[in-house]
Design goal:
Elements (H helix, E strand, L loop, with lengths): L1 H13 L14 E5 L3 H12 L4 E6 L25 H10 L4 E3 L1 E8 L5 E13 L6 E5 L5 E4 L2 E4 L8 H7 L28 H4 L4 H20 L6
Parallel strand pairs: 1-2, 1-8, 2-3
Antiparallel strand pairs: 4-5, 5-6, 5-7
Length: 230
């Protein structure tokens, strides 16, 4: 997804908006995997480049339209949001491009080796009795094949990579984030620090930037017993 968006932006800026890279999506069936900000940008950009259709897959269930009793004010409202990309899709194609609780199991190629279709499957939430976490698992018999000439992967963060956390022998939270004390960045292993998604879970890049700066300050304090970093 990021490569696609970068290519579009670079083409526009390098030509002072004289060249629009329509060849990337014009007349094509575009499949966007992921429902976050990046996925939304892919939806809107593909439509503006003349996509024949745009489908956006989201693993999680469709959020409620209004707050639920378990999500009271002043908590962040966990409700359905329709961003500009989805709004443009509704205006152009007459429907929301998002399909919830669905993922891809297989890509199908044509005789030239290019992707032309995708096999998708519905998901359901199942609790893991060992960890207590809910996982999205496929629903048997719900498979479907859809056209897909362009596939843009904008999937979110699903947890720390096990081979990384195993290598450093750091303690984890029940959600597989690297464990630290509240508002701190030192891990359970001496002089090993963490920040960003591995620390707080899936979030915006601005949080990763902020935590990177704070982690650098924590490292400085660990080495020098003080820090001038702000």
């Amino acid at each position: 997804a990021v490569d696609f968006l970068k290519q579009v932006t670079k083409s526009l800026l390098d030509t002072d908006f004289a060249k629009f890279p329509y060849e990337l999506a014009k007349g094509k069936h575009v499949l966007v995997i992921g429902g976050g900000d990046t996925g939304n940008d892919c939806v809107g950009t593909s439509i503006r480049l003349g996509a024949k259709s745009v489908t956006q897959l989201e693993m999680m269930p469709k959020p409620p339209v209004t707050r639920t009793p378990s999500n009271p004010w002043p908590e962040w409202p966990k409700v359905l949001k329709t961003d500009y990309g989805q709004e443009e899709a509704i205006a152009v194609f007459g429907h929301d491009p998002r399909i919830y609780q669905t993922t891809v199991t297989e890509f199908i190629k044509d005789k030239k080796g290019n992707v032309c279709k995708a096999k998708i499957v519905k998901l359901k939430s199942v609790k893991d009795e060992k960890t207590g976490r809910f996982n999205m698992v496929p629903i048997e018999g719900s498979e479907e094949v859809i056209p897909a000439d362009v596939v843009l992967i904008a999937a979110g963060f699903l947890g720390s990579e096990k081979y990384v956390t195993d290598a450093f022998h750091v303690a984890l939270t029940p959600r597989t984030n690297v464990e630290t004390k509240p508002e701190q960045y030192a891990t359970s292993v001496d002089r090993v620090f963490t920040a960003g998604d591995m620390h707080r879970g899936q979030s915006l890049v601005v949080w990763a930037i902020h935590e990177g700066r704070e982690a650098a300050k924590a490292v400085d304090e660990s080495l020098m017993s003080y820090s001038y970093l702000q």
